[in-house]
Amino acid sequence: MSHPERVKVMPEIAAHALVNRAQYDDMAARAAADPDAFWAAEKDRIDWITSPTKIKNTSFTGDVSIKWFEDGVLNASVNCLDRHLATRGDQVAIIWEGDDPNESRHVTYRELHADVCRMANVLVALGAKKGDRITIYMPMIVEAAVALLACARIGAIHSVVFGGFSPDSLANRIQDCNSNILITADEGRRGGRKVPLKTNVDAALKSCPMLKSVLVVKATGTSIAMTAGRDVWYHEAAAAVPAECPPEPMKAEDPLFILYTSGSTGKPKGVLHTTGGYMVWASFTHQYVFDYHEGEIFWCTADVGWVTGHTYIVYGPLANGATTLMFEGVPNYPDTSRVWQVVDKHNVNIFYTAPTAIRALMRDGDAPVKRTSRASLRILGSVGEPINPEAWYWYSHVVGDDRCPVVDTWWQTETGGTLITGLPGAIDQKPGSAGLPLPGVKPLIVDAEGRELHGATEGNLCLADSWPGQMRTVYGDHDRFIQTYFSTFPGYYFSGDGARRDADGYYWITGRVDDVINVSGHRMGTAEVESALVAHPKVAEAAVVGFPHEVKGQGIYAYVTLISGEDPTDDLRRELIIWVRKEIGPIAAPDEIHWAPGLPKTRSGKIMRRILRKIAANETESLGDISTLADPSVVEDLVANRAA
Ligand code: PRX
């Protein structure tokens, strides 16, 4: 189907938008000309205990130091809760929609404030102090948001681990940040199935002696083992503490949270975000990117275990006094209309999801969508991976009935919030393009040597200067921070993404240029999957690459060399897939396993991934130069045995 390449700003949206094109141009010009003045004004969207006088103090060279609002003092939970009590204490802060369509909850700002204070007091009673790392391993229930905010209230640093990760992945993250307290639930629910969170915790903690206390929220009420002296039921502890807890005054650069994310090498790294800049960025981007108006109902479908959930379920919407919707379930349960039924049930105005979900829903056709009204919808958002124009138009036309702008949002765990997007009231959309930089964001494209390319061009996507929501360091490993982001192209923050810029200045993200793959909008390091595979006793060697996948965006394609004497059977294939699911989590399970008697290596022993990617993508006619390989016949063999 052919579609227009440019979709103009809708006049009825522009007329009421917070930012129209002239205002966007003006903001961008002011932010570029005088960042200090621009952000000094924007910082006032946040309540400060001590208002900062120093605004920006950042350097991308040498030791790399990023400080924003450094002499300011604030508390993130106060900004999400206390400051709203006088004006909107009885407004709903969180609408919770259960996995079961008959279950939902409405929690007002006043109730949320009391819940957060109670959990904060329980944490203090367990010995939590400012600066402690508290791990959160929760299903999508209200208490997950309460847990984040309770940590923020007492100045503890939360580290949320996605509930779909395995005990091993959880243990690694607990050990890396030396966490002493963990908040979890008995079980989670997803699509009618149960997720055994507490059982996973028990398994993980066998290798985590530093972890002293486990706070357990009763979610499903299933019977679970409780370890005396370590495990505490939240509802029992909460009954014994007051519903008021004084907020800890935090310096702007005191850490707010750690969130582990995959890179090209090694174990996932702990991305560290601090309090002041992150809160300003979360509030600023939530308001402008979604053209959020007072009273609107905002639904971000991410899990709180990912950065999207942190910024656009919890901190951004709550800082702005919005009503945020938390959904425990999955889009196709009990049926494929579920998402739109939830939209109608709760009158959702702004809906934010990932292209993979759109493509999956699109496969079920228009009928499940058209059975619902969706009249409340005003703005649609996309995040996590490039959205293909076909999915964009379906989202716009079938879901949005051609009256809701679709805003793509490019960002990363490291960036804290959106950097490149098309503000709905200001910027014409080009489906497939992420859009233009937000005010104060300075993207640039560099070639392989780090030279800036001008005009319409393609290359590596970098940022020339800092923005308030930028990560500050890799927790416990500042050298890794410098190495990962600032050494490839000195002086710039390197995103790891490739991008094209067109003649109108729009950015088109072409995908990762490193060994990170993006599976259903989730980041996975190929090295992580490889190390899980080689941990299997029958595997001698493994190489993992991404390949184009119709629904997931990218799938995981694993080349596996077995130890001699082992037979490549279908049973073993299944066993390896289950093995990786257990080692890392279901999101890391390979889609394809290709038995490889040998892997293409250079004479120095480096695996030529470029060739493996081509074979995985079935582009075997364009393998390029293979003459530098130690044994070119390996390639012929792989091509001949390509998985069907
Ligand atoms: O490759 C880009 C892709 O997702 C990566 C960041 O993943 P993560 O840190 O898990 O954060 C996901 C949610 C922000 C990026 O390096 N990505 C994210 N959003 C887009 C995108 N690629 C294209 N278009 C997007 N809108």
Structural overview:
Helices cover 32% and strands 24% of the residues. The protein is an alpha/beta fold and 644 residues long. Helix 5 crosses helix 6 and helix 7 (167-176) packs across helix 8 (197-205). The two termini are 28 Å apart. The mean pLDDT is 96. The structure holds adenosine-5'-monophosphate-propyl ester (PRX). It is an enzyme of class 6 (ligase). It comes from Acidiphilium acidophilum. Residues 82-465 form the AMP-dependent synthetase/ligase domain. GO terms for molecular function: acetate-CoA ligase activity; AMP binding; ATP binding; metal ion binding.
Uncertain runs are none
Count of distinct strands: 33
**What proportion of the residues form beta strands (DSSP E)?**
15-25%
The whole-number mean of residue pLDDT values reads 96
What is the overall shape?
Answer: globular
Hetero compounds: adenosine-5'-monophosphate-propyl ester
Cα-atom radius of gyration: 24 Å
Question: Helix content range of the residues, please?
Answer: 25-40%
- Sheet bearing the most strands, described? 9 strands, mixed
Taking the alpha carbons of the first and last residues, their distance comes to 28 Å
Structural class from helices and strands?
Answer: alpha/beta
Main-sheet strand order equals 5-4-17-16-18-19-20-21-22
EC number: 6.2.1.1
GO molecular function: acetate-CoA ligase activity; AMP binding; ATP binding; metal ion binding
Enzyme class: ligase
Pfam families: ACAS_N, AMP-binding, AMP-binding_C
